[in-house]
Amino acid sequence: MEEEIQEILATYRSNVNDDKIFFHPHIPPKKLANAVSEFGGSDDVDDVLALVDNTVFGNAKDGLLLTRSAVHVHNMLEAPFHVLLGDIKDVQFQEGLLECVFTINDTYIFRSNMAKKSNAALFAEMLTAIVDTVKRHAANTAPTQRAKEALRALKELFDEGLLTEAEYTQKRQILVAQI
Predict the structure, then answer these.
(1) What is the Cα–Cα distance from 117 to 124, expressed in whole angstroms?
(2) What dotted CATH number matches 2-140?
(3) Is the CB of residue 52 less than 8 Å from the CB of residue 63?
(4) Cα–Cα distance between 21 and 58 in angstroms, integer?
């Protein structure tokens, strides 16, 4: 799967010429560090595949970060959030008069007037191709591997305080039984 994703990135990297869209390994280190620390979630710099810098002065503290596991977003004046690649069913791109809008699973996630619209459209196309690759490989993943991934996600939810200890224990027992 990693090879397929790298091929997709290489194809789009050569087609996207924009001073606001960056692809691994050509993301300026300071931008990368800012994006990961501001809205990169639990992923680190080694997981980043691409970055859309949505800031006026180029500090990359707002934008969209594509990692091996998720799309992380920080829109100005909004709380950062992420969507796991495996949870993405649909990626839509709308080009407006002054800005472009990304929608995932029929929910607005990202708005930009920084990147060139044609390049933002290519980025959305690339994201769709990567999501399709992830889904295709997830369908072939052994149930044991899926249970392990679900356990990791469950632990993250518990650590963030989103589950009580009783809820965590109950759901964990169900997942452990699948291994």
Answers:
(1) 11
(2) 2.30.29
(3) yes
(4) 11
